[in-house]
Amino acid sequence: xxxxxxxxxxxxxxxxxxxxxxxxxxxxxxxxxxxxxxxxxxxxxxxxxxxxxxxxxxxxxxxxxxxxxxxxxxxxxxxxxxxxxxxxxxxxxxxxxxxxxxxxxxxxxxxxxxxxxxxxxxxxxxxxxxxxxxxxxxxxxxxxxxxxxxxxxxxxxxxxxxxxxxxxxxxxxxxxxxxxxxxxxxxxxxxxxxxxxxxxxxxxxxxxxxxxxxxxxxxxxxxxxxxxxxxxxxxxxxxxxxxxxxxxxxxxxxxxxxxxxxxxxxxxxxxxxxxxxxxxxxxxxxxxxxxxxxxxxxxxxxxxxxxxxxxxxxxxxxxxxxxxxxxxxxxxxxxxxxxxxxxxxxxxxxxxxxxxxxxxxxxxxxxxxxxxxxxxxxxxxxxxxxxxxxxxxxxxxxxxxxxxxxxxxxxxxxxxxxxxxxxxxxxxxxxxxxxxxxxxxxxxxxxxxxxxxxxxxxxxxxxxxxxxxxxxxxxxxxxxxxxxxxxxxxxxxxxxxxxxxxxxxxxxxxxxxxxxxxxxxxxxxxxxxxxxxxxxxxxxxxxxxxxxxxxxxxxxxxxxxxxxxxxxxxxxxxxxxxxxxxxxxxxxxxxxxxxxxxxxxxxxxxxxxxxxxxxxxxxxxxxxxxxxxxxxxxxxxxxxxxxxxxxxxxxxxxxxxxxxxxxxxxxxxxxxxxxxxxxxxxxxxxxxxxxxxxxxxxxxxxxxxxxxxxxxxxxxxxxxxxxxxxxxxxxxxxxxxxxxxxxxxxxxxxxxxxxxxxxxxxxxxxxxxxxxxxxxxxxxxxxxxxxxxxxxxxxxxxxxxxxxxxxxxxxx
Amino acid sequence: xxxxxxxxxxxxxxxxxxxxxxxxxxxxxxxxxxxxxxxxxxxxxxxxxxxxxxxxxxxxxxxxxxxxxxxxxxxxxxxxxxxxxxxxxxxxxxxxxxxxxxxxxxxxxxxxxxxx
Lengths: 812, 116
What we know:
The complex is a heterodimer of chains A (812) and B (116). Chain A is an alpha+beta fold and 812 residues long. Chain A has a domain at 577-703: Penicillin amidase (Acylase) alpha subunit, N-terminal domain. In chain A, the strands form six sheets. Chain A has an eleven-stranded mixed beta sheet with strand order 1-28-2-3-7-8-9-10-18-19-21, covered by helices on one side. In chain A, strands 4, 5, 22, 24, 25, 26 and 27 form a seven-stranded antiparallel beta sheet that branches. In chain A, strands 16-17-11-20 form a four-stranded mixed beta sheet, with no helix packed on it. In chain A, helix 3 (84-111) packs across helix 7 (149-167) and helix 11 (436-445) packs antiparallel against helix 12 (449-456). The longest helix of chain A is centred in the first third of the chain and has 28 residues, at 84-111. Chain B is mainly alpha-helical and 116 residues long. Chain B has one domain. Chain B contains five helices and no strands. Chain B has helices at residues 2-18, 25-37, 41-66, 70-78, 84-114. Classes of the chains: A alpha+beta (812), B mainly alpha (116). Chain A binds chain B through residues 2-3, 5-6, 9-10, 12-13, 16-17, 20-21, 26, 33-35, 37-51, 176, 180, 719-722, 771-774, 776, and chain B through 18-19, 22-24, 27, 31, 41, 56, 59-60, 63-64, 66-68, 70-79, 87, 90-91, 94-95, 97-98, 101-102, 104-105, 108-109, 111-112, 115.
């Protein structure tokens, strides 16, 4: 009897222990409960106390001298080193210390290696990443860096720092993400860093409309297509002032494009690849000393990216005998990406040029292993991608590379044609003095305009508008990157891949890219609009912003005696020209005689609106709802197709210009009704619909524009409770403060280059990527309110004494 | 008296063992101590339960207090909308359950070998 009792209880204990040690109660990617809750090694150990900020001295292998890292009261590391390599080593170490999990996950996501740790739910995504050639592109980048020993050295120092942190981890100190998803970090390699840099290319220059545009043109015919989808908005204020002379001719061989291939008369069945949201962009500008109150130039930059926790940016200050640079870095890349030193400041916005084109490959037979090019047969180059999947066997996928690039889409139902992708980010760069990494390390140490121009010679992709200001008083901007030389209209639609005549004509030489130095207007600004006026010798296309650039120019033209404070309030400005033009156009068309008392009241409110997207604005809600409703009712022809084919949507600015200039055009006729509508009926009907659908929200006091706008900050892997479902802040996609959903100003920086450089900045997050840290999200609320922090740009550790949280002393 | 000594020993020995070994050392320690101290089965269950609850619960509580409850709140939200305090209770309960099962097993094992 006693034996039975013992056996039962003992067995039950063993079973319970086993279950809680091995069973994943919340799905296969979550940890077993007992190890996670064990207060000695589980998640509790990732909840630091104030005690964790105690000065430490670490012995480090791989350093050449002593390094002092002082963390200030916002946990920004100020690295004081005796050599550049030691500084990058320390940067690698502290970045990993705060952001290892984020680094690991982002690199897995871009390179198609998520399934290794998350199982088959991410398999499709991984396959797509491999098909886009991300891994191959990263390998190309490493091979180019390898040609320059200095870049190799920089990267190796950084990586040694990252790995010093990884190797010192124990089950207890493993970052929380690893405990939750139940895997361990691998050592960092150059490939990881290269992949991270490719993830930026993916975010910023992967946008392409070829498939959608081809479908729209096929379905609507040339005439209606050209009417609904003009190439760009003639009202855009270009970045480089229109009066800038160009002292060269285009190098393009043949300007005219062949017409769209006649064989392309069928709708492309493929779904468009996922892309980052439209106009993921940014604002930057530099104001010359002649326009500022202090007489010193001021530079401002706010890159708009996905808002996540941890944030994409990591603030850092690197100090060596030859360099003193402050700014934000990308976790995984050595150096500062946006920032300033004692002599210059620089900032970036996305250039938006279309650098990705699709070519239709003509296969020689159904096996799809050879294609025709200029009448010749060419074999594809197969690359076998092995995708390891947690909990199942490795999946092998063969990606076929053509002369244009990888076959991303392979369609079993189409035996003779498939689409190949030609993308600048996949290129193996031509031999030159230095490459992307060298470009940033040079920029970090640049002293003047010449240094800045020289540094950017090494930078290719993603093409960016690099704004610049120096203490010497220069302001400048360069649309810098690998910009293809195209024929008129090339790359707007899918092209035939069977002739090299359809290839780009090389790339615009770096001394002919759009650039300006000290323009007459005494400021230079970019907000993702077109780079140049129509007098620029080269043709280019892409996705360009229509409104923010005009707002900046409107304000900067008028302003005089500019202060840093003015620039901060400009970055937080929520006024929108889109709303101004849209509201006026729609009110013009609104048939008031058909409105009820209540509806009339709301339309009056809109008429009195100042077009500011404040967080409380009810008018903003009504405008946005009305605008969307009118758009949908106008383009019902396009909307009706959206489910069956991927199709381009007419641009916002074109919609407004149709309302103003062509109110009786057939496009306004709603195909779903027997009546024949014009803009007047559509606008009025849409107003009633939008108001009825949103009346409750408009009447409810607690419902804000920020709710309607969906402002939020999500956790990088979407864990509930680890992000912010709602942020109370103003802003609008087409306002300078471009907050929309979980996108917006990911770093706001204003630098005044006086005798002493003074800088302010903030980003919506915190330095620490550890959700248990008080520095995980400590800047979010200040960011939402539009506040800034003074950036502690000092010359010695002693200057930080009163701000010091703690320090790490690294000894060799 | 012996029972409270048993509880105290579980806390002390398991605390040290936890610094080197995985979580399942807790039921193991409770079992061995119940065996060695010849604790009666019901008492072994109850006093080990107490020991496990105190060890895991107080440790979690202490960490949580110094952390201002930041992480427990997030983890609670992640694990189905629990509060931070509930995470402490859940932790304490797990510790209690496993110590109790271990202690009970150890005690029954001793009972069996004693052969009365």
